[in-house]
Design a protein that fits this description.
The chain contains three helices and 15 strands. With 294 residues, it is an alpha+beta fold. The radius of gyration is 22 Å and the shape is globular.
Length: 294
């Protein structure tokens, strides 16, 4: 029986721990291989004719994405070949949000998401579970990552005040055959969950925790952050006919713009704002063609 010397013992331990750490951290080549697989699967989610097959592909996509996002080095990896997935990094570089959608047979969409939080050289993954079809009066509900009002997140605004820090999200929701929605939501980390919605919208409806703009699906509207003026600017929507007021699938932009301006920890509503000092706000920026149907 051979006795392992103390030097060899420590060498074996060193090799074991370094290989374990290396596996946990991942490497660019390995992550790129995951990305190639995810790219193929994600296209099937969008293009397969049968919802059953799209769901099978989506399950496989989730499995592979969850695996690769646990690697520490994946946080810096862009995943920019995933044309059907929105990947947005927070302005303070503390987390990233991955969102994508699955087209259902009835013309509506189901959304999926992962939040990748990097804290003290550790990665934590939060699952975003879309419950939007079952949430009544979502404008006034505080939600969490297990009960999420889903959509494609395309911008993150970092907010900080004496009451703490939180993030404002700009979101697109294809809704159904008749209408589309754009949403302003608030996000905070709270212990082991993410909280969505916060009563910091002032000057419009009371107790509003998120803003939902619903409009004619054949129309396009702008909802963009104007960083220079610290305001979110968006099209003012009106019914296409006075007899259709309250039926938001018939609402269209009228050529004027409203805004929410961030001051003292809240978003204050501003009606009919002058955007001539920042004309780029009026331009509708089409998302990636594969990501959001036009």
């Amino acid at each position: 029986m051979k006795i392992v010397s103390m030097n060899n013992f420590f060498l074996i331990l060193f090799i074991f721990f370094t290989s374990t750490i290396f596996a946990q951290r991942g490497n660019t080549t390995l992550i790129a291989e995951y990305e190639d697989t995810l790219k193929i699967i994600s296209k099937k989610i969008m293009t397969d004719e049968l919802e059953k097959n799209r769901r099978i592909a989506n399950d496989a996509f989730i499995t592979h994405l969850d695996e690769v996002l646990k690697f520490e080095k994946s946080f810096e990896y862009p995943f920019d070949s995933l044309q059907t997935v929105s990947v947005i990094t927070s302005p303070d570089n503390e987390f990233r949000i991955f969102t994508w959608m699955l087209r259902k047979r009835n013309g509506t969409y189901e959304y999926f998401g992962r939040v990748q939080l990097k804290k003290k050289n550790k990665i934590k993954i939060f699952n975003l579970n879309d419950s939007s079809k079952n949430i009544r009066n979502p404008e006034i509900k505080e939600l969490d990552n297990n009960n999420w009002f889903g959509g494609i997140i395309y911008d993150i605004i970092y907010n900080k005040s004496s009451r703490g820090k939180y993030y404002t999200l700009l979101i697109w929701d294809g809704n159904d055959h008749y209408s589309t929605k754009k949403i302003i939501d608030i996000m905070q980390f709270n212990a082991n969950k993410i909280v969505f919605g916060k009563s910091i919208f002032k000057g419009k409806e009371t107790n509003t925790k998120r803003i939902i703009l619903e409009y004619d699906g054949k129309s396009s509207i702008s909802l963009q952050y104007d960083k220079d003026h610290k305001r979110i600017v968006f099209d003012h929507l009106v019914a296409s006919n006075t007899q259709l007021e309250g039926l938001y699938e018939y609402y269209i932009p009228d050529g004027t713009f409203d805004a929410f301006k961030f001051e003292k920890g809240s978003w204050f509503f501003q009606k009919d704002v002058d955007i001539r000092s920042n004309q780029k706000i009026i331009e509708y920026k089409k998302p990636k063609t594969d990501l959001i149907p036009q």
